[in-house]
Amino acid sequence: MRQRLAKNILKGIGIGGLAVLSMASPYFGVNLVRGFRKYNDKKSWRKFYLSLNYLNRRGYVQIIGRSDKGITVKVTKEGKDIIKDVDIDLLELKRGSWDGKWRLVIFDIPISKNKNRLAFTDKIKKLGFVMIQKSVWAYPFECYEELMILRRFYGIEKYVTYCKAIEVEDEFSWRKKFNLRGKKTNVE
Fold it and tell me: So what CATH class is 88-177?
């Protein structure tokens, strides 16, 4: 229960970037996170405060200041990564004009992590990656940050490699798979 509340608090603070949580207002929970219940009793405030301290101890938020008006809280880089993990189902890859570079995902995940491998490959397929070989997938647009999130989320960081390629032997067939027409742009 506390971890779920903590994730919701973290997500809510992440929306604003910096939050001042007022103990005086019985409706701060509604303002903090959409869908939060109204926190208007001491027991609810205590749960909220314990969850906030949990997030602070784990390094996901930084409590900047405390005063009679409330608590000022900032989400850390680690907290932002957790927020992204919480929304893994909402993760999408950007598209735009192709810069002529191929983003490759190469992996060799051990059998002991078979469930993780299957979930990872299913997710990258849904995101639009195309399988080039059994453990090699390609995507024509920038996706480094999203891939790092997925690797960590599935616990397979050390088995997955990301690389960019500017020259591919079978480029015409790759371009066809992604419906890319025209010339490359911005190739270094």
Answer: alpha beta
* Domain span(s) for CATH 1.10.10.10 in the chain: 2-86
Q: Cα separation of 110 and 73, whole Å?
A: 41
Closest alpha carbon to 27 in 3, 45, 7, 47: 45
Per-residue model confidence as pLDDT tens digits over 58-82: 888 887 877 766 677 777 888 777 6
Give the pLDDT score at 140.
95
Q: What stretches of the chain show up as alpha helix (H) in DSSP?
A: 2-16, 28-32, 42-58, 77-86, 114-127, 144-153, 171-177
**In sequence order, what are the beta bridge partners of 137?**
105, 131
Residue 47 main-chain phi, psi, to 5 deg: -60, -45
DSSP string over 58-105: HTSEEEEEEETTEEEEEE-HHHHHHHHHHTGGG------S--S-EEEE
- 130 closest CA partner among 173, 169, 92: 173
CATH code, residues 2-86: 1.10.10.10
**Delimiting residues of CATH 3.30.70.240 domain(s) in the chain:** 88-177
Q: 134: which strand partners? A: none
